[in-house]
Amino acid sequence: MHAIIMAGGKGKRLLPLTEDRPKGLIPVGGSPILDIIIRQLTTAGFSRVTLCVSHFGDMIRRRFSAASFPGATLDFSVDRVALGTAAPLRWVERWDTPALVMNGDVLTTLDFRHLYEEHARGGALLTVAAQRHEVPVDLGVLQIAGGRVRGLWEKPRLGLDVSSGIYVVSPGARERLDDDVTDMTDLILRLVEHGDPVTAYEFGGEWHDIGTPDRYEHAEREFTAHPERYLGPKRVAGRVRREALPVAAPGAWPRQAETRFDVALIASWAR
């Protein structure tokens, strides 16, 4: 199994922590976050890990070129400039089977192997690992139809399916990559627009995006308190959502408010 880690971002939201190093080398529990991710992947059975690097890429290459991860080989794909979270896939060599693709700033207890196997069984071009998040709205939300108020929800909590920054991508998806497609958000929408199969893999468990100082500090506390959750053999599996769901174009939210939205919120992870 092959995994590709996007580790080329500038980490602007993490300044000043990323002033003199890439965010992939930010320590979590004493080890760089990339070290933790690679250990998780190799434990899950991934035999090849490709690091897509750009900003401070030489630092990452020096750190991991001599690193040893039993049962796995590491290689690098180098971009002269940061290309986003999807464009680097165009330049990954020897990619002819599905690959797990993930951001290099994610700490999670997700079962990577189960996600990969579910994608392989389903036949989609891309599978998104998604989590259900509740977003509180501290206002009264109206249901309006035909100019009349049909209902009102006082301070509802909206359930949103959020992209975790973790995917499995089949090589055929590269056909949708061009100069206009730079991030995974763009690639997913391009696939959907062309009718290509994209599935959602829903999972619970722990998931932390360490893209901001507050989120980083929270992830650091959680990992330090429970390292076995992240590095132990037991992982949290999810399930592929099989039923078809309507897709909303960016900004095209429904007029009718509901207490639960089945709308995929595709997060655009800042690089």
UniProtKB/TrEMBL annotation:
A Pfam family that the UniProt record links to this protein: NTP_transferase
Nucleotidyl transferase domain ranges (all copies): 3-223
Residues annotated as signal peptide: none
A GO term for molecular function: transferase activity
Record-linked SUPFAM superfamilies: Nucleotide-diphospho-sugar transferases
InterPro entries reported in the protein's UniProt record: Mannose-1P_guanyltransferase (IPR050486), NTP_transferase_dom (IPR005835), Nucleotide-diphossugar_trans (IPR029044)
Coiled-coil boundaries: none
Keywords, alphabetical: Transferase
Keyword Repeat tagged: no
Protein name as catalogued: Nucleotidyl transferase
Species in which this protein is naturally found: Marinitenerispora sediminis
